[in-house]
Amino acid sequence: MTGGGRATRTAHEALPPAMREAVDDFADHLARVRNRSAHTVRAYVADLVSLLDHGMRMGCSQPSELDLTVLRSWLAKQRTLGAARTSLARRAAAARTFSAWAHRAGVLPSDVAAPLSSPRAHRDLPTVLRADQAAALVEAAGNGVAPTRRDDPTEPTDATRDDPGDTADSRDDPVRLRDRVLLELLYGTGVRVSEACGLDVADVDHSRRVVRVLGKGGRERSVPYGVPAQRAIDDWLRSGRPAVAVPGSGDALLLGARGGRLNPTTARRIVAGYAESLGLPRVSPHGLRHSAATHLLEGGADLRAVQELLGHSSLGSTQIYTHVSVERLRAAYRQAHPRA
């Protein structure tokens, strides 16, 4: 079985052989054929193991014995256990994906999950910084702001993971130069934190000022960045990266203090640390992505262009930012208009 936590692996091992084989084949299909991310594969595998375990408790010994009754019973149990609507929606999607694949592969006699409905996931409007707040955060490392130390004593450490609090007072400190590039890229391009950490040096096209990003599903896109980000990248490549690079650094653009590729978890702590030092609302790299998209739309950018920049496969994923803009306009109206 690919990935999964200890509980998932234990439940997987308790399944009958035919069910275990179906799980493994499905995981292989997701990773190799559908090119899904490791995170998605782990989530879907965990959901499938849970579903098959539930089916086994209802008397199923083969994947072919699953039916709509078992699927609905499984989702109902998840609901009684307190699963959020977003979790239920994802689990229903995992069941439908497995059912469609299993039917094509001859594991199921029919696509039993095709009529399965799921609760519409509630989508909270994302937290968005004001433009001046985003600018202050992005410029923090270059302005000599020290990030609040955000160590997690429960998180294992290794030779490739750096300490975001391990920065010097000098603005030329390599880690501080790295932080400046990270913040500029996250807000200046709107890329996901995993995409930023996955960038290689060769992915930066200095002449055209674009970065080549490998997004979800292995989809590649080119995203422009501005002059401030270019200056930050130049300073990092000239004075920062050579100071921390080690033989094992490879081609990674962003490095940890010990020379390994920057870890997304560490990147999240860096962003949160600077935001806390500045007294800003609690924000994550994804919050900077939200802010970039909202500010683009408020500045008159076309929705389709923003969709392309963010790497959304569906325009519906991008449209949530139009709602954010409307809510901000409504809030300003209520605060300022005498007839509000």
What does this protein look like?
The N and C termini lie far apart (58 Å). A hairpin with a 5-residue loop joins strand 2 (210-214) and strand 3. This protein has helices at 6-13, 17-33, 38-57, 68-80, 85-104, 131-138, 174-189, 193-197, 227-244, 264-277, 285-298, 303-310, 315-336, and strands at 204-205, 210-214, 220-224. The chain is mainly α and 340 residues long. It folds into two domains: 6-104; 131-296, Orthogonal Bundle (hpI Integrase, Chain A), CATH 1.10.443.10.
Helix and strand arrangement:
Blueprint: H1 6-13, H2 17-33, H3 38-57, H4 68-80, H5 85-104, H6 131-138, H7 174-189, H8 193-197, E1 204-205, E2 210-214, E3 220-224, H9 227-244, H10 264-277, H11 285-298, H12 303-310, H13 315-336
Antiparallel strand pairs: 1-2, 2-3
Based on the model shown, name its key terms.
single chain, 3-stranded antiparallel β-sheet, mainly alpha, 340 residues, 13 helices, hpI Integrase, Chain A, 4% strand
